[in-house]
Structure formats: structure tokens, C-alpha cells
């Protein structure tokens, strides 16, 4: 990270917050770093860095309240913040995968109680973040990762996911 305001935010809000395999800051940074290695777009990397800051369908802990979206938008930009928001308020990964064959892409915003129609590219970016989130935690979610490969992901993400799946298969053989 090169933005001192973002670094301060991460340290103040995330350091020491427990997460499944350590602390939330380490997980968020690991997800970001994986996306960066894959060559994902900058907005995707930044969204990966803060993907669960509002909490998620599976994790109720909110490091930042949804009413503070403007704060995050100022730090990481509108596109990245929109990805973080959708990552928080949708039943993921189920909703993301179900939308792979839908036109238009329509996700349920469980916070607002409304449907959100978004460009297919945004769904692809959400799935790229989802894949990095899963791999960073070394979750046994091979079927979900296989479905993520149906999206239009960054070439590096495809290679990374395929490599992860091949490694898991080799270890279990």
C-alpha cells in the first residue's frame, strides 16, 4: 500500500480483529496480494483488501458500518467500494454463481431489500474476489472455484485457480 490514509485506516480498524486463521488484517492483505499477483484490475485489488469490512452473509462482524460507505469510497474509490458493498449484502457465493447464466445479472441486496441489476463485468469481478478469498483461506471449496472459472476472470486468476485446484487434487490423491 502506498496511501498512508488507507494504511492508517487498515491498522486502526482491522489489526487484531480475530479471523478464522489469524486476524482480519492478515486475511484482507492476503486476499489483496493474491489478486495483485493475478494481475487483477486495481479496483478489484482494493475491494479484495477490504472485502469483508462491512461484514458478509457469513460473517456478521462489521468493522465499518454501512452508513459509513462514504468513508470507504473516499479511501478506495467508487468502483472498489461498490464491489465491497455487494460482497457484504448478497448471499455469496451462491447468488454470484446462480447469476452466471442470467441476463441481466440481478442480485438481491439483503440490506436494502431490493434487487440490483449490474453489468456482467461486475459479477465477474465479484467472483474473482470470491475466488481469492477462498484460496487465501485455503478453504476446501473446489466446486465453487470450478464455478468461478466460468466467469470472465483475469488471465492470472484463471491460472491461479487452476493451479490451486490441481494442487489440492494432487495432495488428496
Structural write-up:
This protein has one domain. The chain contains 9 helices and 4 strands. It has helices at residues 4-14, 24-38, 42-49, 69-76, 78-89, 94-98, 120-136, 142-148, 155-172; strands at residues 18-19, 22-23, 105-109, 114-118. The strands form 2 sheets. The chain has a two-stranded antiparallel ribbon with strand order 1-2.
Can you summarize this structure?
58% of the residues lie in helices and 8% in strands. The protein is mainly α and 173 residues long.
Topology diagram in text:
Blueprint: H1 4-14, E1 18-19, E2 22-23, H2 24-38, H3 42-49, H4 69-76, H5 78-89, H6 94-98, E3 105-109, E4 114-118, H7 120-136, H8 142-148, H9 155-172
Antiparallel strand pairs: 1-2, 3-4
Helix pairs in contact: 2-3, 2-7, 3-5, 3-7, 4-5
Secondary structural class:
mainly alpha
Mean pLDDT: 90
Number of helices: 9
Largest sheet: 2 strands, antiparallel
Low-confidence segments, given as residue ranges, are none
Helix content: 55-70%
Q: In what order do the strands lie side by side in the largest sheet?
A: 1-2
Strand content: 5-15%
Q: What is the number of domains?
A: 1
Amino acid at each position: 500500500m502506498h496511501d498512508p490514509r488507507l494504511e492508517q485506516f487498515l491498522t486502526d480498524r482491522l489489526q487484531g480483529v480475530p479471523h478464522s486463521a489469524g486476524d482480519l488484517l492478515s486475511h484482507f492483505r492476503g486476499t489483496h496480494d493474491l489478486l495483485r499477483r493475478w494481475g487483477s484490475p486495481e479496483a478489484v485489488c482494493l475491494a479484495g483488501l477490504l472485502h469483508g469490512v462491512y461484514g458478509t452473509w457469513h460473517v456478521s462482524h462489521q468493522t465499518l458500518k454501512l452508513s459509513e460507505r462514504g468513508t470507504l469510497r473516499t479511501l478506495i474509490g467508487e468502483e472498489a467500494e461498490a464491489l465491497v458493498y455487494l460482497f457484504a449484502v448478497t448471499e455469496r457465493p451462491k447468488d454470484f454463481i446462480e447469476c452466471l447464466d442470467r441476463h441481466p445479472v440481478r442480485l438481491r441486496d439483503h440490506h436494502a431489500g431490493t434487487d440490483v441489476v449490474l453489468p456482467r463485468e461486475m459479477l465477474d469481478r465479484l467472483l474473482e474476489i470470491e475466488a481469492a478469498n477462498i484460496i487465501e483461506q485455503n478453504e476446501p471449496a473446489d466446486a465453487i472455484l470450478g464455478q468461478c472459472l466460468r466467469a470472465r476472470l483475469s488471465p492470472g486468476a484463471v491460472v491461479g485457480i487452476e493451479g490451486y485446484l490441481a494442487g489440492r487434487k494432487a495432495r488428496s490423491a
